[in-house]
Amino acid sequence: MMFICINNLLNSAQLSTLREGLTSVSFEEGGKTAGWHAREVKNNYQASPSVAVRQMQRHIRQALADNALFNSVAYPADMMPVVFSRTGAGEGYGRHVDDAVMRAEGLLRSDLSVTVFLSGPDEYQGGELVIENASGEEGIKLEAGSAVVYPSTTLHRVEDVTSGQRLVALTWVESLIRDDAAREILFDLDQARRSIFADEGKSPRFDLVSKSHANLMRRWAKR
To answer: CA-CA distance, 207 to 186, in Å (whole number)?
Structure first.
């Protein structure tokens, strides 16, 4: 299982715009949109649909689309509309797994989950995103504007916030590469060829690694 942190996905101007925009939108109980098995443990609030929220959703989606590291990790075929979540003191989201199939305009298989932190770690206490893996648990609490991408297959939770307010943006990705291990191989190859290109330019070594990356994509990519 691989999860990747993306530092500075949003610049300061983008972050300020989003945070200011969220002060003027309505929020509703998050449990309304949770799967039946997660509804009992979801205790937070989500921005209600509106023109302003749709505009902010587009900002997050474009920031992800423009980010080379996100594309190298996710190989997105489709994404769910972004959800803006607010968690205050005494609120959190208990242990759960994300729905395997989600419905927006059509059906989407959730391969990867994305959390974009809009509040800084000094603005709230508690509220860590805790992801379970074979070696134990990993608590994640990133700087405002940064994101974490992790497999939707994992059990995870958001610890109760004890003070302050946690604002995040969330989305889910259907990847062209369904298998997590295959995505990790492609990620490693992509990082290697980018490193070679930075050192050597378009060299014979770069061409060979790029060829392997492209041909594995042909083997594994499916819509």
So the answer is: 15
CA–CA separation, 116 and 52 (whole Å): 18
115 shares a domain with 9: yes
98 and 149, same domain (yes or no): yes
The verdict on 38 and 145 lying in the same domain is: yes
Strands 147-151 and 42-43: unpaired
Which residues, including other chains, have CB under 8 Å from residue 44's CB and lie 6 or more apart?
A: 30, 85, 86, 87, 91, 92, 93, 158
pLDDT digits (tens, 9 = 90+) for 166-210: 999 999 999 999 999 999 999 999 999 999 999 999 999 999 999
68 and 155 together in one domain: yes
**Residue 143, both tokens:** 């700087």
pTM: 0.94
Task: Write the pLDDT tens digit of every residue in 119-142.
Answer: 999 999 999 999 998 889 999 999
Kindly state the DSSP code that residue 135 receives in the 8-state scheme: T
Q: Are residues 115 and 193 in the same domain?
A: no
